[in-house]
Protein backbone atom coordinates (compact mmCIF):
# COMPACT_ATOMS: atom_id res chain seq x y z
CA UNK A 1 0.00 0.00 0.00
CA UNK A 2 1.28 3.46 -0.91
CA UNK A 3 1.06 6.53 1.32
CA UNK A 4 -1.47 8.04 -1.09
CA UNK A 5 -3.66 4.97 -0.70
CA UNK A 6 -3.16 4.75 3.06
CA UNK A 7 -4.27 8.35 3.59
CA UNK A 8 -7.01 8.13 0.90
CA UNK A 9 -5.70 11.27 -0.80
CA UNK A 10 -8.13 12.57 -3.40
CA UNK A 11 -7.65 14.60 -6.56
CA UNK A 12 -7.93 17.98 -4.77
CA UNK A 13 -6.46 18.20 -1.28
CA UNK A 14 -4.70 20.51 1.18
CA UNK A 15 -2.76 18.29 3.59
CA UNK A 16 -1.28 19.66 6.82
CA UNK A 17 1.30 17.69 8.80
CA UNK A 18 1.54 18.35 12.56
CA UNK A 19 2.97 16.77 15.71
CA UNK A 20 6.19 14.86 16.28
CA UNK A 21 9.21 13.89 14.22
CA UNK A 22 8.95 12.55 10.68
CA UNK A 23 6.89 15.35 9.14
CA UNK A 24 9.58 16.59 6.75
CA UNK A 25 10.35 13.05 5.60
CA UNK A 26 6.62 12.48 5.09
CA UNK A 27 6.34 15.79 3.17
CA UNK A 28 8.89 14.65 0.56
CA UNK A 29 7.64 11.05 0.49
CA UNK A 30 4.14 12.27 -0.33
CA UNK A 31 5.60 14.65 -2.90
CA UNK A 32 7.41 11.83 -4.68
CA UNK A 33 4.33 9.61 -4.76
CA UNK A 34 1.98 12.38 -5.89
CA UNK A 35 4.38 13.67 -8.55
CA UNK A 36 4.55 10.16 -10.00
CA UNK A 37 0.76 10.13 -10.31
CA UNK A 38 -0.02 13.62 -11.60
CA UNK A 39 1.12 17.20 -12.05
CA UNK A 40 0.02 19.98 -9.76
CA UNK A 41 1.64 19.08 -6.43
CA UNK A 42 3.01 21.84 -4.20
CA UNK A 43 5.17 21.20 -1.14
CA UNK A 44 5.56 23.97 1.41
CA UNK A 45 5.66 24.90 5.09
CA UNK A 46 3.92 27.48 7.26
CA UNK A 47 6.76 27.21 9.79
CA UNK A 48 10.33 26.41 8.68
CA UNK A 49 12.14 23.36 7.32
CA UNK A 50 15.69 22.44 6.40
CA UNK A 51 16.44 23.28 2.78
CA UNK A 52 16.65 20.00 0.85
CA UNK A 53 19.38 18.98 -1.53
CA UNK A 54 18.52 19.62 -5.19
CA UNK A 55 16.37 16.84 -6.58
CA UNK A 56 15.01 16.01 -10.03
CA UNK A 57 11.53 15.39 -8.65
CA UNK A 58 10.78 19.01 -7.67
CA UNK A 59 11.51 22.62 -8.66
CA UNK A 60 12.10 25.16 -5.88
CA UNK A 61 11.11 28.81 -5.73
CA UNK A 62 11.64 31.31 -2.91
CA UNK A 63 10.05 34.73 -2.64
CA UNK A 64 8.60 36.94 0.12
CA UNK A 65 5.93 38.21 -2.28
CA UNK A 66 2.72 36.28 -2.88
CA UNK A 67 2.26 37.84 -6.30
CA UNK A 68 5.66 36.57 -7.44
CA UNK A 69 4.97 33.11 -6.06
CA UNK A 70 1.58 32.88 -7.78
CA UNK A 71 3.09 34.06 -11.07
CA UNK A 72 5.89 31.47 -10.86
CA UNK A 73 3.46 28.68 -9.94
CA UNK A 74 1.17 29.60 -12.83
CA UNK A 75 4.13 29.39 -15.24
CA UNK A 76 5.51 26.09 -13.90
CA UNK A 77 2.63 24.04 -12.48
CA UNK A 78 1.80 22.41 -15.83
CA UNK A 79 5.45 21.75 -16.75
CA UNK A 80 6.74 20.13 -13.56
CA UNK A 81 5.31 17.36 -11.44
CA UNK A 82 6.15 18.94 -8.08
CA UNK A 83 6.99 22.45 -6.81
CA UNK A 84 8.60 23.43 -3.50
CA UNK A 85 7.74 26.90 -2.19
CA UNK A 86 9.00 29.07 0.67
CA UNK A 87 9.44 32.76 1.48
CA UNK A 88 13.24 32.68 1.67
CA UNK A 89 16.35 31.30 3.36
CA UNK A 90 17.02 31.84 7.06
CA UNK A 91 20.53 32.25 8.55
CA UNK A 92 20.27 28.82 10.22
CA UNK A 93 20.00 27.05 6.86
CA UNK A 94 16.27 26.56 6.98
CA UNK A 95 13.59 27.75 4.61
CA UNK A 96 11.15 30.34 5.92
CA UNK A 97 7.55 29.25 5.67
CA UNK A 98 4.77 30.96 3.79
CA UNK A 99 1.71 32.56 5.39
CA UNK A 100 -1.27 30.20 5.83
CA UNK A 101 -3.40 32.57 3.75
CA UNK A 102 -1.04 31.96 0.82
CA UNK A 103 -2.06 28.31 0.83
CA UNK A 104 -5.67 29.32 0.21
CA UNK A 105 -4.61 31.62 -2.65
CA UNK A 106 -2.29 29.04 -4.24
CA UNK A 107 -4.91 26.30 -4.05
CA UNK A 108 -7.08 28.37 -6.39
CA UNK A 109 -4.36 28.58 -9.07
CA UNK A 110 -5.34 26.63 -12.18
CA UNK A 111 -3.56 23.29 -12.30
CA UNK A 112 -2.83 22.97 -8.57
CA UNK A 113 -4.18 19.64 -7.34
CA UNK A 114 -2.54 18.99 -3.97
CA UNK A 115 -0.70 21.13 -1.43
CA UNK A 116 1.26 19.33 1.27
CA UNK A 117 2.18 21.65 4.13
CA UNK A 118 4.39 21.08 7.17
CA UNK A 119 2.51 23.10 9.77
CA UNK A 120 4.93 22.97 12.72
CA UNK A 121 8.36 21.77 13.77
CA UNK A 122 9.43 19.26 16.39
CA UNK A 123 13.26 19.22 16.23
CA UNK A 124 13.12 15.52 15.35
CA UNK A 125 11.63 14.37 18.66
CA UNK A 126 9.05 11.57 18.48
CA UNK A 127 6.52 13.62 20.48
CA UNK A 128 5.71 17.30 20.79
CA UNK A 129 3.44 19.57 22.80
CA UNK A 130 2.01 22.61 20.98
CA UNK A 131 2.58 26.10 22.33
CA UNK A 132 0.18 29.00 21.80
CA UNK A 133 -0.11 29.82 18.11
CA UNK A 134 0.86 26.30 16.99
CA UNK A 135 0.41 24.63 14.66
CA UNK A 136 -0.04 27.07 11.77
CA UNK A 137 -2.75 25.22 9.86
CA UNK A 138 -4.36 26.78 6.77
CA UNK A 139 -8.14 27.10 7.13
CA UNK A 140 -8.72 25.21 3.87
CA UNK A 141 -6.92 22.06 5.09
CA UNK A 142 -8.87 18.99 4.00
CA UNK A 143 -6.62 16.35 5.57
CA UNK A 144 -4.83 16.77 8.92
CA UNK A 145 -2.06 14.25 9.68
CA UNK A 146 -0.84 14.23 13.30
CA UNK A 147 2.50 12.41 13.42
CA UNK A 148 4.14 10.64 16.38
CA UNK A 149 6.97 8.15 16.82
CA UNK A 150 6.14 4.93 18.64
CA UNK A 151 9.64 5.15 20.20
CA UNK A 152 8.17 7.89 22.40
CA UNK A 153 5.95 5.42 24.24
CA UNK A 154 7.39 4.46 27.61
CA UNK A 155 10.13 7.10 27.44
CA UNK A 156 10.71 9.75 30.14
CA UNK A 157 8.83 13.01 29.73
CA UNK A 158 11.86 15.19 29.05
CA UNK A 159 13.20 17.46 26.32
CA UNK A 160 15.25 14.68 24.75
CA UNK A 161 12.08 12.81 23.75
CA UNK A 162 9.24 15.34 23.99
CA UNK A 163 9.73 18.69 22.27
CA UNK A 164 8.50 21.46 24.61
CA UNK A 165 8.35 19.00 27.47
CA UNK A 166 7.51 21.72 30.01
CA UNK A 167 4.34 22.52 28.07
CA UNK A 168 3.56 18.81 27.81
CA UNK A 169 4.00 18.50 31.56
CA UNK A 170 1.41 21.24 32.15
CA UNK A 171 -1.03 19.95 29.53
CA UNK A 172 -0.87 16.39 30.83
CA UNK A 173 -0.54 17.26 34.52
CA UNK A 174 2.49 14.97 34.70
CA UNK A 175 5.85 15.82 36.28
CA UNK A 176 8.99 16.12 34.17
CA UNK A 177 10.74 12.75 34.10
CA UNK A 178 7.58 10.68 34.47
CA UNK A 179 6.89 7.87 32.02
CA UNK A 180 5.04 8.77 28.83
CA UNK A 181 2.10 6.37 28.81
CA UNK A 182 -0.29 5.40 26.04
CA UNK A 183 -2.90 7.70 27.60
CA UNK A 184 -0.44 10.62 27.65
CA UNK A 185 0.35 10.14 23.95
CA UNK A 186 -3.32 10.06 23.01
CA UNK A 187 -3.97 13.22 25.00
CA UNK A 188 -1.09 14.97 23.22
CA UNK A 189 -2.43 13.81 19.85
CA UNK A 190 -5.86 15.21 20.72
CA UNK A 191 -4.25 18.60 21.41
CA UNK A 192 -3.15 18.66 17.76
CA UNK A 193 -6.46 17.40 16.47
CA UNK A 194 -8.57 20.01 18.25
CA UNK A 195 -6.43 22.76 16.69
CA UNK A 196 -7.33 21.64 13.16
CA UNK A 197 -10.16 22.99 10.99
CA UNK A 198 -13.53 21.50 11.90
CA UNK A 199 -14.11 20.06 8.43
CA UNK A 200 -10.72 18.39 7.96
CA UNK A 201 -10.40 14.60 7.89
CA UNK A 202 -8.07 13.30 10.61
CA UNK A 203 -5.67 10.46 9.79
CA UNK A 204 -2.84 10.10 12.35
CA UNK A 205 0.47 8.47 11.42
CA UNK A 206 2.28 6.34 13.99
CA UNK A 207 5.88 6.27 12.75
CA UNK A 208 8.91 4.01 13.44
CA UNK A 209 6.84 0.85 13.87
CA UNK A 210 9.86 -1.14 12.63
CA UNK A 211 11.61 -0.91 16.02
CA UNK A 212 11.44 -4.08 18.17
CA UNK A 213 7.87 -4.47 19.42
CA UNK A 214 6.89 -1.29 17.62
CA UNK A 215 4.15 -2.67 15.40
CA UNK A 216 2.30 -4.32 18.30
CA UNK A 217 2.53 -1.13 20.40
CA UNK A 218 1.35 0.95 17.44
CA UNK A 219 -1.64 -1.30 16.80
CA UNK A 220 -2.71 -1.01 20.44
CA UNK A 221 -2.24 2.76 20.39
CA UNK A 222 -4.20 3.04 17.14
CA UNK A 223 -7.16 1.19 18.62
CA UNK A 224 -7.11 3.58 21.57
CA UNK A 225 -7.02 6.63 19.28
CA UNK A 226 -9.90 5.33 17.18
CA UNK A 227 -12.00 4.79 20.30
CA UNK A 228 -11.39 8.30 21.66
CA UNK A 229 -12.84 10.25 18.72
CA UNK A 230 -14.39 7.84 16.21
CA UNK A 231 -16.36 10.56 14.44
CA UNK A 232 -13.28 12.57 13.41
CA UNK A 233 -10.45 10.02 13.27
CA UNK A 234 -11.14 8.08 10.08
CA UNK A 235 -8.20 5.65 10.27
CA UNK A 236 -4.68 5.40 11.66
CA UNK A 237 -1.69 4.72 9.41
CA UNK A 238 1.18 2.63 10.78
CA UNK A 239 4.51 3.12 9.09
CA UNK A 240 8.22 3.82 9.03
CA UNK A 241 9.38 6.58 6.74
CA UNK A 242 13.08 5.82 6.34
CA UNK A 243 12.72 2.99 3.83
CA UNK A 244 10.22 1.49 1.42
CA UNK A 245 7.55 0.36 1.78
CA UNK A 246 6.70 3.19 4.17
CA UNK A 247 3.24 1.85 5.08
CA UNK A 248 3.18 -1.16 7.41
CA UNK A 249 -0.56 -1.20 8.04
CA UNK A 250 -3.78 0.79 8.33
CA UNK A 251 -6.17 0.55 11.25
CA UNK A 252 -9.67 1.46 10.00
CA UNK A 253 -12.14 3.50 12.04
Defining key terms:
alpha/beta; three-stranded antiparallel beta sheet; globular; 253 residues; ten-stranded mixed beta sheet; Rossmann fold; single chain; 24% strand
Helix percentage range: 25-40%
Q: Describe the biggest sheet?
A: 10 strands, mixed
Mean pLDDT: 94
Strand portion, in percent?
15-25%
Spatial shape: globular
Integer-rounded radius of gyration: 18 Å
CATH class of the domain at 3-44 and 115-245: Alpha Beta
Helix/strand-derived category reads alpha/beta
Order of helices and strands: HEHEEEHEEEHEEEEHHEEHEE
Query: The CATH topology of the domain at 3-44 and 115-245, please?
Result: Rossmann fold
Low-confidence stretches: none
Oligomer: single chain
> Which CATH architecture of the domain at 3-44 and 115-245?
3-Layer(aba) Sandwich
Number of helices: 7
Cα(first) to Cα(last) distance is 17 Å
- DSSP summary, beta strand count: 15
Structure description:
This protein has 253 residues and is of the alpha/beta class. It starts with a helix and ends with a strand. The protein is globular, with a radius of gyration of 18 Å. 45% of the residues are buried. The longest helix has 15 residues, at 23-37. The strands form 3 sheets. Strands 1, 2, 4, 5, 8, 10, 12, 13, 14 and 15 form a 10-stranded mixed beta sheet that branches. The protein has helices at 3-6, 23-37, 66-76, 100-107, 165-172, 182-194, 214-228; strands at residues 13-19, 41-45, 48-50, 59-62, 82-86, 88-89, 94-96, 114-118, 127-128, 143-149, 162-163, 201-202, 205-207, 235-239, 247-252.
Write the layout of secondary structure elements.
Elements: H1 3-6, E1 13-19, H2 23-37, E2 41-45, E3 48-50, E4 59-62, H3 66-76, E5 82-86, E6 88-89, E7 94-96, H4 100-107, E8 114-118, E9 127-128, E10 143-149, E11 162-163, H5 165-172, H6 182-194, E12 201-202, E13 205-207, H7 214-228, E14 235-239, E15 247-252
Parallel strand pairs: 1-8, 1-10, 2-5, 2-8, 4-5, 9-11, 10-12, 10-13, 13-14
Antiparallel strand pairs: 3-7, 6-7, 14-15
